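Problem: given the chain below (261 residues), write out its structure.
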Amino acid sequence: MLEFPNINPIAIDLGVIQIRWYAISYIAGILLSWALILKIIKFKSLKINKNVISELISNSMIGIIVGGRLGYVIFYNPEYFINNLVEIFKLWNGGMSFHGGFIGVIIAVIYTSKVSKIPIMLLADLIAVVSPVGIFFGRLANFINGELYGRITNHRFGMIFPNGGNLPRHPSQLYEAFFEGLFLFIVMLLFIQLTNILNKRGFMTSLFISCYGFFRFCIEFFREPDIHIGLLYFNFSMGQLLSLPMIIIGLYFIIMTTKKN
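Solution.
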């Protein structure tokens, strides 16, 4: 059994102001994604103004926060928030949905494309390549917070989480950080560096959607379902039910994109 590191969720405490690792993870993911997109543009000699990328990142950030919060409200706890509307705005209490944030980013990409006159799928592909970076840091922050832990296990990877009872559980946040974040980023990066896949508009977006959906679906078998939701149809969690369409849609567009090009 592994020992939970018990890192203080508050990275910097200035008394009146407290900066949490969760906030730092968002900032780190955004800044690194921004820098990586600029590197890709230069490496691939894409004719996109840096100001457009700044707008893309800014709009995506808004999409992640607004979409992620509304996604959590709608998908995971609508009854509670309907009766406690003020709680929707209390982001510091936690509660963000990747799938809601994903929808928010889609809207941000479409809006940025319309304003900048840059093809939607080109901007979407750039965002898709760097998205695993943000996911990686986000899942590490979940681990530090001791939240979204896994199901009870006897495996040697098991940990006793502060809020997870006295039995060891899967560190599912680390599984997600590795597969949805680090591993997926390496795959996307190899495609960018070794091929001219960006010429096939939409392929990288489709690859990200299908791969993320697949990894998330599989890892949900190790992750503890939300107590107030539990397991739903076919004993799938909410995360799995939301990820299934991503797998199907992603694979469909991979096939269509390949045929079209």
